[in-house]
Structures are given as C-alpha cells and as structure tokens.
Amino acid sequence: MAPPSHCPIDANNGVHHNGGGAVPVETDTTAVPTLPQGSQHLDAEEFRRQGHQVVDFIADYYASIGDYPVHPNVTPGFLRRQLPAEAPSRPEPGATAGALGEALAAGINAVPFTWAASPAATELEMVVVDWLGKALHLPETLLFCGGGGGTLLGTSCEAILCALVAARERKLAEIGSRRIGDLVVYCSDQTHFAFRKAARIAGIHRDNCREVSTRRADAFALSPAELRAAMQADVDAGLVPLFLCATVGTTQTTAVDPVRDLCAAAAPHGVWVHVDAAYAGSAFICPEFRHLADGVGAADSVSTNPHKWLLANTDCCAMWVRRPALLTAALGIEQEYILKAGAAAEGHDVVDYKDWSMALTRRFRALKLWLVLRCHGVEGLRGHVRSHVGMAAAFEGMVRDDARFEVVAPRRFALVCFRLRSPEKLGGEKTANKLNRTLLEEVNATSSGPYMSSAKVGGMYMLRCAIGSTLTEERHVREAWKVVQDRAASLLRKMEIVYNVFA
Q: Gene3D superfamilies, alphabetically (predicted)?
C-alpha cells in the first residue's frame, strides 16, 4: 500500500490503549499537499522516514508506559464527543497510511474486546465505522448515529457467519430450537463459497442451502422472481426460509443483485437479508456508484472490505447491522466477564465488541482505518477508486476494439471479463473454452507480467483482468493488453497451421 508523500505522524494524535487521553483532530486543511493517486509510484524514501517515526513513537511509548494511569478516568462517549461526525473530505496533516497504522496498532497492542479494556479503541471503532458508512452513502439506520451500528472484523466470511448466527437465533426463538433442521438459506450460483461454508458452520443442513441459478441475459444477477418462487416452494414443503445472502459485486463477474427487490421478496417470510459487498462496496464512496446500493436500507446487515479497495491493508472488513441487539443477543456471553464497565459507565450505552463477533480477543483495526481516512480523505479515496475504474474502462475499450475478442459480462467497476473468440472453422464454441484456458496459461507464463485470473460462468471460460493494485499505472494496462494480443495471435496461428495440415 502506497503511503502519501507528506503525512507526518503527530505524536500528539496517538491513541493510547488505556484510553486516558483525547485524540485531537486537526481541521485546518488549507495547506494540505496533493495526495498521490494509485497510479503513481510509492515514495520509498518518504515511507522509510515515516516508518522510522513509527518505530520511535512505539519505543517512546514503552519507555514512558509507567507514566500512564492503569485505569482511565473517562466515561462512555468521551472520545466520540471530541471527534468530527464525518471523515475529512481532503487529506489532513498529522496522519499516516494503513500499513504504518497497522504497525502502530501492533506496537500499542490494545485488545478492545470490552469498552473497559480499552475505551479509546472501542470508541474510535464506533467513530470510524460511522465515518466509513457515511462516506459510502449508507443509510443512517445502519449507523450508530441512526440506531444501528457497525464493527470491524477480519473478513466478509466472518461477517456473513455472524449475521447468519444472529438470524438463526432470532428465528429459532420464534419457532423453537428443535426445528433447526427446517431452516433454509438462499443465495445465487454466483455467491461466494464463504456463504455455504458459513451455513454449514451455523448448523444448516447442506440440502437446505438453495443456490438460485442466474443467466447471462440478467448479467448473472439474482432474480427476485426466482427467489420468491424458491422460498414459496420451501414454505409449501413445511420448511422455514431463514437467510438471504445478496451480493453487490460477485467474485467472478462483479454482478450486482437487485437488493431492493430481493428485500421485498424476502420480507413476507421474515428472512434476514445480508448484503455482501466485500469488493464493490468501496465504490459506493463515489456518487456515480451510489445507485448500486439502492435498497440497502431494507437489509438487515451489510459488509464490505476496505482492505480490498480503500487502501487499508489486510485484514479489515466493516459490517453494519440495523438492529445490533439481535447480533449481541446471539453472540454475547451471559456470565460475568473480566474488565467489564464499572460505575463510570452507569447510565450509558456501552459497546462491548466481544459481543459483536465470534472471537473475544480482537485486533485494533480501527486505528489504521482512521489513519487512512484522515490521510487520504474521502476525495482522495474517490480518486483512487476512479483511477482504477478508468484504467479498467480503457482495457475494456481495447478488448472491444479487437474483433477477435469479446467482453463476456458488463463491466461495472474495475474488472473486465473477456475471452478470445474461436473462429468457426477452428471449432467455434466447441473449442472456445480450451482456447481461452490455453491463452490464460500463456499470458501468465510471461515473465514480465501480467497476471490474470479466470472464471467459468454460464458454461463459458473467461479471462479476468482486475485492476486493483495500488501501484498500477496506465502503462501497465497497455502492456498487459499487448501481451494478451501477442499470445492470442500466436495461438491462432498455431491452430490455423494444424487446421490446414489436417483439412
């Protein structure tokens, strides 16, 4: 991940694990330097200088750790009241990027499983998920400021499992725990395999996981009519619809499920709707992509991974829920627990994040995301996403300009799904999949790059050009296409020779 050229660390803006001090935020951005975009090179020397500052900060922290109070004298809300309600629009001085934020978090070694264990880390996480949610144009009903709430997990796999367990516990409270074998979950045939894995972990019978088929004519999106029919068939069979995993930006082709209509189809059965936007959710930060999130407000939970496209290094998944009480009821612990909030927290709504996920011990992910949001600003992150989308659009244009190739699925974000057409005399569709599999192997065997992936959707084998690296530049995209064209030309020549010999 490329850090900005000028974002020095301000030691006064550190977050101590004991939560005893405030975290001031600078608001004067009049002299902020221009933020490097994703297409520019990493300034290695500046990164090295900032890295040294981080090491010095951590060393000084440990050298003076005895000066900090063992127990902070603060009350819930102390930090949230001192931070802005929204992420800065432009980059701010006094911050650093995610990789260095990760190093800071490791050095401080906060373990924010309860508010009492680390008030500052807990409240910074609450602030950051609201900042990110607002930047992504999520409805307030999913944010703390609107009665919902969010947390930072490792991956979307965890988010799906947490939401599924919450849905299961809510449903079983209604129909009785003995009917767990009647619960049915739904997804499309494009949904990430993590959902089926989560269903098994949550105790859902393998036969009760419905994969609704998608079609190329629908851009591989889940059909509300097909979903409605599948749910009704299960109800007629005496089964209980439980959970739907809708996707905005499927793994193979970045298909976008119609969330609003799917929520409407699921509502009559009291089905929990989770929106998995692991990759494409980051694009919501750009107003031009906001419409793809239409209907998210009717969902019960949403997750996206800032570590995929918003310059936060792995691992960092944000999950929001409309009714946090359902999540904590399912995942919370009933017995007394060490480091619980004491008298200072009486009369306050305290968030103990141990009740929001599977694990009790958890990482301080909020620090790096907070630093990324401050360092790059919302506008800087929009520029980063737009630069990748622009490069993908350019690659798509190159594909369309070459009659030997075709774009297989609509490009919505920064992924181009394409394939080489097989001439009819050389076998046409019968040999197309084999031809493209060989093409991918030869492209990836090129020592200087690029590296592409594949997918087989609707019976078609396709190549996937994903623009996502922080350091990718337009020249890399042009060079990648040149490699594809050269290898394709070579393959077609070989096939032509074989055809002429045996014709």
A: Aspartate Aminotransferase, domain 1, dopa decarboxylase, N-terminal domain, Type I PLP-dependent aspartate aminotransferase-like (Major domain)
